[in-house]
Amino acid sequence: MAGFFGYIFTLGVAILIVALGWIVTAVVSRSTYAHACDLDWLEIVMTAHTWKTAATRNVATFSLVEPREALWTWTSNDPFQNDFNLVGLNSTNPSLLPSLSNVTINHATNELERAWCHGTTNQCATGYVWPFDGLSFEVQFNGTLTRMRNVHREWSFAHVPSVSLHRVDENGQLAERLMETSIQKPGACRQIKVCVSHAMRRQKGVVDPDVLVAAYWLLHKQAISSRKCTAERVKKVGAK
C-alpha cells in the first residue's frame, strides 16, 4: 500500500512540475513578446487575416516606443495582392510622418513598382527585394541608397517571417541591425511584431521608405503564414 501511495505522490509531483513548466514558459513568452521592442525606435504590430476572412485587410500599426505614441496604420489586401497603403494617422499632429503613402511591389519581378511620396501621387523611391539566397532589400530615396540584408540565409521559421535585417556597408559587409521580427504573439499566430532600431532614425520627423518597403514585404509574408496557420488549426479541431 505504501508503495502505491508513493507512486501516486511521485506522479502528482511530476504532473505539477510539468504544469509549472508550461506556466513559466507561457509567462516568459508573453513577457518576451510584450517587451520585444523596448530598446528600439519603432514598434510595428502586424495583424493578418485568417484563411476564412480573406476579404479583411491585413494591418500594420506603427508606434513610437519612447515616449509611447501610436502613430499611423497601414493595410494591405489579401496576401496574394501587392499593395500597401497608409489608411490613417492616429492623431492630427503625430511626432513622425511616413515618407510614403503607398507601396507596391511586383512579386513576379521583386521590384518596387510604386512608392508615392506622402500626400502626393509622385514616385519618390525605387528599389527591389531579393528573397533568394537569404533576404535583401535595396531602396533609393533622395539620392541615398540603403541596402539591408538578413543575417541568416533563411527568412522564415516554421513558415513565420523571422528576420534580422542589417545595413550592408560599402564593402558588402553587414553593419548595424536595422529591423528585426519578434516571436509571434503567444496563442495568436495572426500577429507578430517588427522592431525598428534607432539606426533607422535619419530624418527628423520622418520615417524613411526603406522601413516601409521592408514592413510591407514582412506583412505580406505574415499574411500568408496566418492563412496557413489558421487553416491548420481548423483542420486539427475538425479531426478531433
Secondary structure tally: strands: 16
Domain module tally: 2
**Binned strand content:** 35-45%
The rounded distance between the terminal residues' Cα atoms is 38 Å
CATH class of the largest domain: Alpha Beta
Q: What does the radius of gyration come to? A: 21 Å
Portion of residues in helices? 25-40%
Shape: globular
Compressed to H and E, one letter per element, the order equals HEEEEEEEEEEEEEEEEH
Provide the structure class. alpha+beta
Number of helices: 2
- In round numbers, the mean pLDDT is 82
If strands are numbered along the chain, what order do they take across the biggest sheet? 7-6-4-3-2-1-15-14-13-10-9-8
**Within the CATH hierarchy, at the fold level, what is the topology of the largest domain?**
Tubby Protein, Chain A
**What about the largest sheet?**
12 strands, antiparallel
- By CATH, the architecture of the largest domain is named Alpha-Beta Barrel
Q: List low-pLDDT spans.
A: 17-30
